[in-house]
Specification:
Blueprint (H helix, E strand, L loop, with lengths): L4 E3 L3 H7 L5 E2 L6 E4 L4 E10 L2 E10 L31 H6 L7 E2 L1
């Protein structure tokens, strides 16, 4: 995925489309040029007492690996390749433990 994308769907549309129960955080407005480090909606789910719980979370676009000394690296780590994601130290742990859906339209 490229570093910038379009996010123009209303929060209510995202909740409905992904069958999410609630929003955690303050959803940003529509943007036709979402850039790394900006707040974006993501869809995350977890198993809670045997029930699947899906939520719309507001997160910062980018990835800050656990070994990073500076959070600014998050603006550079946005292009993971599915073919090598489990081989790269920057993405490996997040790909296994912290997956989410990023509703996006490529620009």
């Amino acid at each position: 995925m490229c570093g910038r994308y379009v996010m123009s769907k209303a929060t209510s549309d995202l909740l409905s489309h992904f069958d999410a129960k609630e929003v955690e955080g303050n959803p940003p407005g529509p943007s036709w040029n979402v850039a790394p480090t900006q707040n974006v909606p993501i869809v995350a789910e977890r198993l809670d007492d045997g029930t699947l719980d899906r939520r719309l979370l507001i997160a910062k676009w980018g990835l800050v690996p656990s070994w990073a000394k500076d959070t600014k690296i998050g603006s550079k780590l946005v292009n993971a390749r599915s073919e090598t994601i489990l081989e790269k130290p920057s993405f490996r742990s997040a790909a296994v433990k912290r997956r989410a859906i990023l509703p996006a339209y490529p620009v």
